[in-house]
Design brief:
By secondary structure, the protein is of the alpha/beta class. The chain has a single domain, classed as Pyruvate-ferredoxin Oxidoreductase, domain 3 (3-Layer(aba) Sandwich), CATH 3.40.920.10. Strands 2-3-1-4-5-6 form a six-stranded mixed sheet, sandwiched between helices. Strand 4, helix 2 and strand 5 form a beta-alpha-beta unit.
Length: about 200
Amino acid sequence: MDTIRLIIVAVGGQGNLLSSSILGEAALLSGIPVGMSEIHGMAQRGGVVESAMLFGDALSTVISDGEADVLVGFEPSETLRALKKCNRNTVVITNLAPLPPFTVAMGKGVYPDLDRLQDLIRAKTEKLIAMDALKLAKQAGSNLAVNMVLLGALIQTGKIPVSAENVKQAMRTKVKPAFLEINLKAFELGFSAAQTGRS
């Protein structure tokens, strides 16, 4: 199979690493070779956390600029920041609920306009799926389920060679039992939103 290159970007505390772990487990359940690398910013200060995942036979877990097949952004400005990893054939999935950095709160920075941000992404890539993942996470029962909403949207695209069933199976082993139902519901809501284009 051709190697599929996925970048996931988030702010510390948004659950990027759990999502990556679930995807890795789902790939193994699907019999797909998978490699992963992570970059941790100052997570406790809202720093960026980036995961690179390669599905299929790959010699390296590094995804260079312009190489990503799929980009998933848990925070809109982080999606924009990672746009250099994309190319004309990349599919981008982004949450539209901002988590502005402290520099914006202090008046030392300006948060990008969300409409302009989407225009910039669309201009450089094949497809953009943008949704208010926070709203869907709340609907599922927890603000913290944004990661599972976006995971559902990712699987719906069919760009990653793992089935929704294997992702749910991986969730059952990786998510604490007390939060499993909320996470499964968030996954389904994200899957549906990507399908219908409404969030």
